[in-house]
Amino acid sequence: MASTTRDGRDPDPDATPAFSVEGLSKRFGSGADAVHAVEDVSLSVERGSIVGLLGPNGAGKTTLIKSILGTVIPDEGTVRVLGRDAADGRRGAYANVDAMLEGARNDYWRLTVRENLRYFATIGGVAPDSVADRHDRLLDRLELTERADTPVRELSRGMKQKVSLASVLAGGAELVFLDEPTLGLDVEGSRTLRREIRRLAEEEEVTVVVSSHDMQVVEDVCDRVVVMSEGSIVADDAVERLLGAVDDYRVRIASDDLSPATIADLRDRFAVADADASADPPTLAVSTDGDAAYDLFEALHAADVTLDRVDTVEPSLEDVFVRLTGAAPDASSASEPDDGAARAGRPRAATAGDDGGVQ
Ligand SMILES: Nc1ncnc2c1ncn2[C@@H]1O[C@H](COP(=O)(O)OP(=O)(O)OP(=O)(O)O)[C@@H](O)[C@H]1O
């Protein structure tokens, strides 16, 4: 990154956050109709970290990001970007910052992939020849090398999305905001993009803020998650700690012996989250802590239910999100899961014995 740094920023980058906001508020409109889009938000993000910004529609995420980017002027509060007060002069603060908002960027569709990278490096203030190696590396990592000389308009949607990301990174930005970066990508494309985001943070100390409704992407890629609701931050923690804070494990079983009558009986005694008597074999999921799990297996044993399969399902980021905001993430904008795993939970262990019994 040193070769692409363009200004005389803070001499001790390790001690300076990538950005920080303090007491940030933004209202739209006035009087009784005023919308408090962001209210008294404070946040500081370390360099080289990947932060997920989550929240239901209208929570204030875009307003916060645009306030940090300087395209929305906050009513109150301060923003510091890469060691500089954003209010002191936009060029200095934003020289090494870039963004891909709403899942896309205005790439030039008549230009080739490589020409786009050179163009965006130039408008970012970098001589494109000086970052040619970087562009080669980006194209390689994003599996675009073979299409480097193809006009962007001839590419698939997923490839265009990857070109958007490459363009954002073409000038050597140290802080990037990515809104729905995997929108429209297939499973493989999404995986490639996530891998590249992680590599950029780990190897090049790029700081990445990812805003997405796709919880799986956020869970996979982010070190830390900030959850907003109604203009405020309602959670801000490492992904593991957020997951650990929700004590809502589920035991999911499958058995040919799960008759509708047995399921009805179990419903009276346990917190049945989900049941499907018509599945082959029928299935049952029960929310439980450790003690209730013993009671459940005793009840199943007493009812002569031989288990074909047992999974323990850990709480997912989606469960945490629903718990914190009371809202479901917008499934319509989420990409497909990588595998057959249920989105609503993270299967931890399949423990069905060969004989189907549980002792
Ligand atoms: N330019 C604007 N004029 C008036 N109201 C606005 C404007 N921009 C945002 N708002 C309002 O501010 C609130 C926060 O909007 P914002 O776009 O920041 O939320 P968001 O979390 O990004 O939502 P989404 O996930 O739907 O993109 C919403 O009630 C929105 O209607």
What report would you give on this structure?
It is a single chain. The protein contains eleven helices and 15 strands. The protein is of the alpha/beta class and 359 residues long. Strand 7 (175-179), helix 6 and strand 8 form a beta-alpha-beta unit. The termini are far apart. Strands 6-7-8-3-9-10 form a six-stranded mixed beta sheet, sandwiched between helices. It has a five-stranded antiparallel beta sheet with strand order 12-13-11-14-15. It has a four-stranded antiparallel beta sheet with strand order 2-1-4-5. Residues 1-11 and 331-359 have low confidence and may be disordered. The chain is globular. Helix 3 (113-123) runs parallel beside helix 5 (157-169). The structure holds adenosine-5'-triphosphate (ATP). This is ATP-binding cassette domain-containing protein. Residues 342-353 have a biased composition (Low complexity). Residues 327-359 are annotated as: Disordered.
List the helices and strands and how they pair.
Blueprint: E1 19-28, E2 35-45, E3 50-54, H1 61-69, E4 76-81, E5 84-85, H2 90-94, E6 97-100, H3 113-123, H4 132-141, H5 157-169, E7 175-179, H6 187-204, E8 207-211, H7 215-221, E9 224-229, E10 232-238, H8 239-245, E11 249-254, H9 260-269, E12 271-276, E13 283-288, H10 290-302, E14 309-315, H11 317-325, E15 345-350
Parallel strand pairs: 3-8, 3-9, 6-7, 7-8
Antiparallel strand pairs: 1-2, 1-4, 4-5, 9-10, 11-13, 11-14, 12-13, 14-15
Helix pairs in contact: 3-5
The structure holds adenosine-5'-triphosphate.
Residues 28, 35, 37, 55, 57-63 line the site of adenosine-5'-triphosphate (ATP).
